[in-house]
Amino acid sequence: MIFKNLQQQPPDKILALMTAFKEDPRDQKLDLGVGVYKDPTGITPIMRSIKLAEKKWWEIESSKSYVGLAGDPAFSDAIISLVLGNSIPRNLIASAATPGGTGAVRQGFELFKVANPGVRVFVSDPTWPNHISILQYLNIPFETYRYFDNETRGVDFDSMVSDLSRAKAGDVILLHGCCHNPTGANLDKQQWKIIVNLLNKNGATPMIDLAYQGFGDGLEEDVYATRLIAESVPETVIASSCSKNFGIYRERAGLLMLVSQDSSKRNINQSMLAYLNRQNYSFPPDHGSRLVSIVLNDKDLRSDWMSELEDIRNSLLNLRVQLSNELQKISGSDRFSFIASHRGMFSRLGATPSQVEKMRTEFGIYMVSDSRFNVAGLNNETVPALAKAIVETGV
Questions:
Q1: Phi/psi of residue 30, nearest 5 degrees
Q2: 77 shares its domain with 96
Q3: Same domain, 334 and 279
Q4: pLDDT at 236 over 80
Q5: What pTM was computed for the model?
Q6: Dihedral in degrees, nearest 10, Cα atoms 303, 240, 371, 149
Q7: Whether 119 contacts 140, CB under 8 Å
């Protein structure tokens, strides 16, 4: 029996939370766990531009044949332009389409393992759980670097720099390009410049996970760090996701980019990305990436997409301010002001697992046990309920 040694794997915490929420019979319950954008009605809508692009593509699509190992070049060009603008010459960039941002992260880790079998990856504490899960599955050693200050609910930058100073050439430093998941706490521009200097000093290679471009301070503002790093260090790997900012979660569209300041390496790098795709899933899915490239290359669709994305971003900011103000009003304290300064879909409250459990059992509010909550799961009517639960739980 070949499968007799298989063992039951622990359930994904967020998926388990979703199941528990669905099984909760209470009418007054609130799902702040799963990481998808929701409008005020609780629906994850299809963006207008994507819907129109889908209709357009349905009219002109003539084949379902394979596109290529690295995906459609128009998609790569569109995302490279969106992420890097004109900061990096195109002859320095290799790229390959992937099944979502997770696929890009996985392929990036695979790339590092091939390039350096002894690679060590530094990940923030905390980070997106899948980062560590994939590293463990690939048997890639990793170390954590301090990132979040549980007292201030901001970045513990001095400790971060201290820990990253241990990295050396051959190591990889995994960074969140914007809207840090799960904390929502981000570096400022001066701090990013210090990170660039550190990278050039110790020779470690940066890998940037960019999953929320446009959800923080704006499309251009959210890639400040990515562009700064890519143009300042010898080599940079970027994993970009289209799930959030195009609302195509189930279409699985992502792009892995490898930037090398040595243009002679570009063809080798490109062949390596294509090779890794071939070994994993051969050809990446095309439908989602095709819709993205249609939107980005059509003036009217792009304009409408940018407008709708800006509406989403502003709605998140408004919910943050509303929650921060409500907490200040009922607690008589400004200790929750960090919520308004965080960016992206998530914030981390700094609550204990027992406090999170109390919010679930007594108030029907579901969030991950580390107290990460999805701001987009709120609306104007549910903000007071969350604020009440936070205060009465003693966070």
A1: -140, 120
A2: yes
A3: no
A4: yes
A5: 0.94
A6: -110
A7: yes
Q: How far apart are the first and last CA of the chain?
A: 51
* Rounded Cα gap, residues 235 and 115, in angstroms: 13
Distance of CA 82 to the CA centre of its chain: 16
Q: Tell me which residue range forms the domain holding 250.
A: 66-297
DSSP bridge partners of 174: 207
Q: What is the pLDDT of residue 16?
A: 81
On the question of pLDDT at 10 being above 90, the answer is no
Residue 4 lies in a domain: no
Cβ neighbours of residue 13 under 8 Å, at least 6 residues apart? 129, 368, 369
Last residue of a domain, one of 243, 276, 297: 297
pLDDT band at 94; cut points 50, 70, 90: very high
Just list the catalytic residues.
128, 209, 211, 244
The domain spanning residue 182 has which CATH number? 3.40.640.10
DSSP H/E element including 162: helix 157-164
Single out the residue in 242, 271, 297 at which a domain terminates.
Answer: 297
Single-letter code of the amino acid located at 159? S
What tokens appear for 375 in the block?
A: 């701001």
